[in-house]
Design goal:
Helices cover 75% and strands 0% of the residues. It is mainly alpha-helical.
Length: 159
């Protein structure tokens, strides 16, 4: 399948797919960081953060699947190895074992800022390509991340 099958120009879709794969790699790193935070959070905020981290990693997993499937819908293969994710992603892994709960939250706030930046850039690229389907999907992800940035910043009193 190629982009023409869904009424998009092949040449305009390449930068969309490239940026979708970059975002996919970053979401994989973010997802694993969320899992580590979920597993390793301790302290008086355990119950609150354990549930929030689970909510966030569940959403990230759905996002990962939607990104990969959109890349496929555009007629290209999504990257799919941890080696590719680590090499491609801007986000970096962190050690969550023994990490203070507020430092976990701050690390996730930084991740969300990076993801939002990528998503804003991708919105411009998808608009230029006339790719409203990808644009709508990315806009939805960005809105979720913006809301959760506000919530996490409020949690650590950085609002």
């Amino acid at each position: 399948m190629n982009a023409e099958k869904i009424s998009l120009e092949e040449g305009k879709v390449k930068p969309v797919v490239d940026h979708l794969n970059d975002l996919l790699a970053n979401y994989h790193i973010h997802y694993q960081k969320l899992r580590g935070c979920h597993w390793n959070v301790k302290g008086t905020s355990f119950f609150t953060l354990h549930l929030k981290f689970e909510e966030l990693y569940t959403a990230a997993l759905v996002t990962i699947d939607e990104l990969a499937e959109r890349i496929l819908a555009l007629g290209k293969p999504p990257i799919s190895t941890f080696k590719d994710y680590i090499e491609t992603a801007t986000l970096k892994e962190i050690q969550t074992i023994g990490l203070k709960d507020t430092l976990m939250v701050k690390a996730l706030i930084e991740d969300l800022a990076t993801l939002i930046k990528f998503e804003r850039e991708l919105l411009k690229i998808t608009a230029d390509a006339g790719d409203d389907g990808t644009n709508d999907m990315i806009n939805r992800f960005m809105q979720f991340n913006e809301k959760n940035t506000w919530m996490l910043r409020s949690f650590v009193n950085e609002d």
